[in-house]
Amino acid sequence: MSDEEIQAMTPSERRELVQRLALTPRGPILNPQTMQRIRKWRLVLILLAVAVLIPWTVYLGNTLPDHYVARNWVATWVGFDSLLLAMLVATAIAGWRRRQLLFPFAFATGVLLICDAWFDVMTSQRGDDLLQAILSAAFLELPLAFVLIAGPLRLMRYVAIRHGLIDPDVRMWRVPIPMPELWPDRNPQVVDQDSGL
After folding, report:
1. Quick check: helix, strand or coil at residue 40?
2. Model-level pTM?
3. How far is CA 197 from CA 1, 6, 152, 170, 185, in A?
4. Is the Cβ–Cβ distance between 115 and 121 less than 8 Å?
């Protein structure tokens, strides 16, 4: 096809072409049964973790003391901040080099910043220490976390729009994984209607 023919195509014709091309794998990939099995067991593992975490959280809420002297306080915070620093550097490198690894690195870094803000505020002594933690969370950590999480999610959506996988009005949470082999029992038109592709 020429560039002119592609330019003349409607968005829906482009999506259909992308889906047809995606159904023709160029290299070795996992077979659909293996992919379904992996997906099923990952979902089972996540649901099991949820089922265990709910009673565990209730148990901790009822049994943990209000005051506790922690061991390895310095190593814990230096280790956490070192991990945060490494993730910030990895995010910066992936963004600078325009690599798709930006998406998971930025998202994970944003989550670490939210955790950092939470623990700083919750473990600070009342007074100046707590005020500093609240100001740091409100004006540094949480805004940066928002940028690191929302920016790559928006970019993922733009990539899907740019490649003709979705219409511009489709919201991020409706963007499917663009691998038709993940839904072998459904045809592209059903995927189109169900998932916003």
Report:
1. helix
2. 0.76
3. 23, 19, 19, 8, 16
4. no
